[in-house]
Every structure is written in C-alpha cells, then in structure tokens.
Design the sequence.
C-alpha cells in the first residue's frame, strides 16, 4: 500500500498536488489540518495523527469536536506518558525509542522528535510498502533554516525554539532507518 503523509510545509502552497495525494492508498494528516486547501493538500483523510497526552485534554472529546475527522481513526504518538481517555479507533504509537536514537545520533540530550517525524513512525506501523511525504520541508532539506508552516496554518513556527528542540538532519537519517527496517520506500514530494 502507498501512504501519503501530508504535513504543513510551505512547499504545498499553490502546488496543486491534491489529486496526487488523494490517489494514495491511505492519507495521514495531522490533527490540525482543517485549513488544508483541497487543490494543494487533497481532501482524503484516512488516519489522523496527534500527540498525546495533548495539553492534558480529553483526546476523545477533542477528536469528537473537530469539524472534520479521519475515516479510520487516530494514531496518537507519545513519549511513554499515561494515556488520557483516547478516541475510539485509536492506535497509541510510542516514539521513545526514536527519541533516544535521535539524541544518540546528534549528541543533543535536549531534543525531541517532531510531529512530522512521528508521522513516519506511524506510517511504518500500517505495513505499507511506499510513503510519499508532502509538505515536510525541513525534514526533506535536513535543516530548519527558513522553517515555516504553510501560510494558512494557525500555528506559526518559533524558529529559535525549533533550532533548540529539533534536529531535522538527524530526523532524516532516522527516517531512512525506519524505511529500511519496515521495508518501505520513502520519497519527499
């Protein structure tokens, strides 16, 4: 199965990739994708990806109150914390292993994997043979220079915070490890 991961990178702005994204066997999007433009980002949403526990909210209630929802359910990534009440059809995804691998690889004990990286870990659990990542600009480039989300995303990027907390080059290397271990091809569009 081919999975399209849809991120919030600025490269999708006006790119007209919606039909290409929707043609994948499954489409993973982040929980805060309501602003996506169908012509650029597609409209299919098979699995939603969200962090958990998320701001100590009731994730089930949060998911229920969203204007749009994924077709199959949620992949909730976490760092080993206790789970709050989870939405129905939720698969918890523990990313502690990858967090530790990133810290070892980079020698930076304060960094954590990004939610974009967590989407690749989630895709690997779905037994796919191919992943195409759309809008993962910083990971694709291996640098946070000029890191920003698509112009319509409600959450602006704090570049200084991102530089302290994330290592996109390291994440790119770990994504290649995930691909090798899971036997899947990964491409960035």
Sequence:
């Amino acid at each position: 199965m081919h999975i399209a991961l849809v991120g919030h990178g600025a490269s999708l702005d006006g790119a007209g990739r919606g039909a290409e994204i929707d043609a994948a066997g499954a489409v993973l999007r982040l929980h805060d994708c309501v602003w996506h433009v169908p012509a650029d980002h597609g409209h299919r949403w098979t699995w939603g990806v969200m962090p958990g526990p998320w701001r100590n909210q009731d994730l089930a209630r949060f998911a229920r109150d969203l204007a749009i929802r994924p077709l199959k359910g949620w992949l909730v990534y976490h760092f080993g914390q206790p789970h709050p009440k989870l939405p129905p059809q939720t698969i918890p995804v523990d990313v502690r292993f990858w967090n530790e691998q990133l810290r070892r690889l980079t020698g930076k004990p304060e960094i954590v994997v990004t939610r974009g990286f967590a989407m690749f870990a989630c895709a690997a659990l779905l037994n796919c043979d191919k992943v195409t990542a759309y809008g993962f600009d910083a990971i694709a480039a291996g640098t946070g220079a000029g890191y920003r989300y698509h112009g319509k995303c409600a959450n602006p990027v704090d570049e200084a915070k991102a530089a302290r907390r994330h290592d996109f080059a390291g994440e790119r290397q770990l994504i290649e490890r995930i691909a090798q271990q899971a036997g899947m091809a990964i491409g960035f569009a």
User: Anything to note?
Assistant: The CA atoms of residues 73 and 88 lie 7 Å apart.
